[in-house]
Every structure is written in C-alpha cells, then in structure tokens.
Amino acid sequence: MAIVPKKRVLPYIILGILKLNSQMTGSEIDAEFQHEIGEFWQTTHSQIYPELKRMVADQWIGQETSSQDRKQKWYHLLPAGEHQLQNWLTEPLTPSTDDEFPLKVFFIQDQSSPILYQLLTQELQIHQAKLTHLTQRMTTLFDHQTCQTANFGHYLILQRAIERETNSLQWLETMLKQLDG
Amino acid sequence: MAIVPKKRVLPYIILGILKLNSQMTGSEIDAEFQHEIGEFWQTTHSQIYPELKRMVADQWIGQETSSQDRKQKWYHLLPAGEHQLQNWLTEPLTPSTDDEFPLKVFFIQDQSSPILYQLLTQELQIHQAKLTHLTQRMTTLFDHQTCQTANFGHYLILQRAIERETNSLQWLETMLKQLDG
DNA sequence: AGATACATGTAACCTGTTACATGATTAA
DNA sequence: TTAATCATGTAACAGGTTACATGTATCT
Asked: What is the mean pLDDT of residues B85-92?
C-alpha cells in the first residue's frame, strides 16, 4: 500500500458546480455544499470565498460584479477552469480514505460518458486490491478460532470491511455490465 | 442534520493500543498505525511522539526510560488514561464522515462487552437515519425518469449510497441478533 | 571505522474550522 | 427606523503532513 499525497479537491468541486449551473454567486455555491454536494463533501463559505478569489486570479473562472443588486458577484467557468475540471475528472483515482469516487461521479451528466466508464473501472481495481489485502489479513490474523475470541472487535471490523468491499465490487460490476450492454 | 464539532481521536487510539499491549515504545505504537490500525486510521510518528509527551504530562500514561537499551522510552497506561479511554468508547457516536465506529469496535476485546452492544445500537440508529434521509432525497430529486438521465452521475451515487446504507444496516442487525441469541 | 538503519524529536507549512466583522437588503 | 437576515470577507486557531535533524545501534 503505497503512500499517496493528499489531493486538494475543493477547487475542482467548485468548478464542477459552476459547470452545471454556469452563472452563480458565492452564496449559491455555498448552498450547494449545504444540499446535494453536502452528502459527500463539507465546507463553509470561509473556504469558498478565498478559493473563488484565487481561481479568478488564476483565470479559471470569471467574475462579474454586475447589476444594481446588492454586493453580489457572479461567477462563471472559463476555458482554463473547464480544462482543470476535465483534468481532475480523468486523472487516476487513488485509494484514499476520503472517497473521491462519488465526488467525481457526481459531476458526470451523461450516462454514455467515457469518463464514467473509466471511473467505474478504476474504482473496481481499487476495491479488488483492497479486498485481496483484507482477506489476506483475515487469514493471517484469524485463522484460529482462539484469535477471534481474544480480539473479537478487531475480527468484527475486519469481517465488516470485507463485506463492504464485496458489496462495493458487486455494485461496480453490475454497473459496468449495464453500461456495456 | 445537525452540525457536530470534529473530535480528536488520536490520543484515544494510542490509549487503546497501550491497553492492548501494556508496555510499548513510541516506534512500536507507530508500527501499529502502519499495520492493523492503519486500515482505519493513519498517522505518523511526528504526531505520535508529541502526543505521547502530552499524555505523560497529563498523567494519562507513564514513561520509563529504562534499561541500557538505546534511547528508547517505554510507555504504559495509567488509571487516568484508562478512564479517558473508557469515556471515549462509551460517549455517543456521531454521524461523522470519518468513521469512529470501526475505530472504537477495534478496541473491544470481549464478545460479551456491553460497550459492543451499545456501539452496534448507536451505529444502527445513525445508519437508519441516513438511509431515511437518502431515500427521501432520492424521491424528491429523481422521481421522474427525465431527471435521472439529465444528471445520471448524481443519480448513480445516490443509488449507491442507499445500497451501502442498506448493506450496513443488514450487517448491524445480523450482529445484534447474534449477540442477543 | 564508516555506512546504514532505527528511534526519537522538532519546525515549517498547508488546509480546514471557528469566530469575528461589515455593508446591504428586507421585515417589523 | 430599528432589527433581523443575507452576502461577502478576514483573522485566529488547530490539526495534520512533510521535511529536517540528531543520536544510537547494527552491519560490513
């Protein structure tokens, strides 16, 4: 299990949100994190506003302080940002604990998107590797009944982890079959 | 979904490890995080050593710079630390993303521990609430076929999340039945 | 004796959280 | 007009990661 550097995903989520909606204010983006995105990723406006500022500076997004309405600023995706988003979506998934998979899938709109297929395949491999690792761990640690009773909690969660991975694999395989057919 | 302050768990994990092994050096504790605990929680020696220092100062653990052997220091659990560990294990689980459940279960040694039953029950309620929430979300967002195809990715992960919760609930119920019987 | 690995420790950095702050708009 | 809320922003803090540093065994 190689050590993988933690990736920053917040900017890409914001880009994804902007792609889906095309013209938004900061607080509208914030609202997304309280609702749908919030199921998978949490943040607050204290992170969003500085991030928007940075992305404007980097020309990933454009800002329009338009209209007479309040002090609101409207943001929209720029080509560079679109490019960054595509990069993030297609770059390899890593077996991290903070699950990037649902996050990326969230931004796939089209069922026939090649990126979707790619994501499912990558995720499948990750879970296969994990399952192999876990079952191996299980046999080396708990082949004797005595070990199970001596460290019951450890045994339980390992068993649970294996079941979870199995379930994930089942789902991924079903999905891939559906897309193929 | 109430907002819950993030809890610091590292010290309690270390206490748990020390409870299981009773006499350990810093690097031995570090090794645990590379092996079994590493499945559920990651950290490095840069966090462990200062944490050990703090816990020695707080009298949660004792330190012995014994023997002629190296510069090694041996740590062991003190009553105050034992107490802190028990507190952590029994305090209510929160529906956080970073899963405390497997972490706490890991440290349960005895199958008949009342804490195990408590943890399973708490986790059951959390997952029930989450499942209810997710299914509700599903019906409000995707009751029409058109919505599914327009935002296929979103639909997919919501479906997956529901399946995952269902699977978790099944497992938890099975376990609770086994403990009862 | 020199090189390598081990055990411990510290410092700089990055990111996310909490709390505070300001103007502008709506409600009473 | 005052109070409450909304939209935006900043500052202080806390926690974890990466990189650096030091001394001590072990190996050749």
From this structure: 92
